[in-house]
Amino acid sequence: MSINNSEIAQLVQPDRVHKSIYTDPEIFALEMQRIYGQAWIYVGHESQVKKPGDYHTTRIGDQDVLMLRGSDGKVNVVYNRCPHKGAQLVPLGDGNVGKFLRCPYHAWTFKLDGSLLSVPLRGGMEGTAFNKDDPMFSMRPLARVDSYRGFVFASQSEGGPDLVTFLGGAAGSIDNLCDRSPEGEVEVVGGVFQVMQQSNWKVFYENLHDTMHAPITHESSFMAAREEAAERGEMPFELLIMDGNGEPYEFWEKLELCAYPYGHGYMEAIFDPTAATRDPVSRVHFESLAKVHGEEKAREILGMNRHNTVIYGSGSPHTVFQQFRVIRPIAPDRTLIEIQTFRLKGAPEAVFDRALTYTNLINSPSSNVMPDDVELYRRCQQGNLTAGGEWVSHHRYGGTDKQTPEGMVSTNGTSELPMRNQFAAWKQYMLTDWNQEKKHVA
Ligand code: FES
Ligand SMILES: [Fe+2]
After folding, report:
1. Which ligand 1 atom sits nearest the alpha carbon of residue 108?
2. In terms of CB atoms within 10 Å, which of 174, 323, 353, 359 comes out highest?
3. Per-residue pLDDT tens digits for 302-317
4. Residue nearest to atom 3 of ligand 1 (CA)
5. Contact indicator for 285, 349 with CB cutoff of 8 Å
6. Ligand 2 centroid distance, CA of 376 (Å)
7. Domains of the chain
8. What pLDDT, in 10s, does the model give residues 15-47?
């Protein structure tokens, strides 16, 4: 690596960042080590591996990993590598391996926690350094694995904060997503959408709380929704969720943006929380919760009205419409998005249908809304490859951010506080070794 720490530190200033952090392959490689090699990263939800032998593959930074339900019911996360010749052990996707894993190359077998079970023709190993109990002959587990209300995270670092400390105020969004289920539990249902964006992963995180873009980037979809509603003489849910982006600046200015350590945060929701008990779907949802918790508590749960939450490095859970957009960096200019939709256990089916409608209309590859964002991310990537300037601006309401006991809060809903917070965290990840809890030596 030729870039040193003082140069990295220079790339992030309080109100601007250098464009190379989006485009430079060397910086991307360092991010894989210092962000994705350390932070707690969302692997998947426990409901994706219900039975022993079920697996779900994914990536933590540039590492292929799999989440696997053990015979003892525990969820394990191991690298997708056979310790013999290094073959990727299971194919990418979801499946069930049965009682044990068997490598398709030379048939070494492994227990469901990745430890070596047997090798064929074992006599051939006698007199060599092969030792079944030596970890080098087993699939390697991730350094730390933990689950928060069914959401499984892993860290490649032994050191650093525990998962709850790491999540901080963002844990409240996972709590609220689960609490919206009368049983307090959610499950991934209906497979996932995948979208490959031709842009750097950080651009998407910035956009999640970028209120200034909504009435501009999404003009075509909110205008179409308004025309359709005028023709029909009503604004059904399907149009309402597109119409929301067309609110005037004064609306966005009043929203609250919260920022937490490690780059996390959330944006206050853009839909009216009192609607929670007015439309028919919200009404039956409210009733199912009230039956279990009483009306006051049900109102409190549905009244927590967060739009996109950012869990930096992992993606964005949306509590009200029950989804998790998982963000996986692939290359400096490639980012894979996986959209999971959740069913709230015990809630009326209409609530899940509504979440699917939201995912389909707003975020899916065929939606009317998200492709406009994705095109703008691509343009940012392309523009930053030109010699047309060096810096990316995060000046809006700079210097006005208010400190709270948990983090920071914006003074105006159009503030670029979320971007400033994300990049302050980025700098900290990039300059700190969690195993040492001290600065990397340049
Ligand atoms: S590479 Fe897996 S058994 Fe040989
Ligand atoms: Fe957008």
Report:
1. 3
2. 323
3. 999 899 999 999 999 9
4. 106
5. no
6. 9
7. 41-148 (2.102.10.10), 188-269+305-433 (3.90.380.10)
8. 999 999 999 999 999 999 999 999 999 999 999
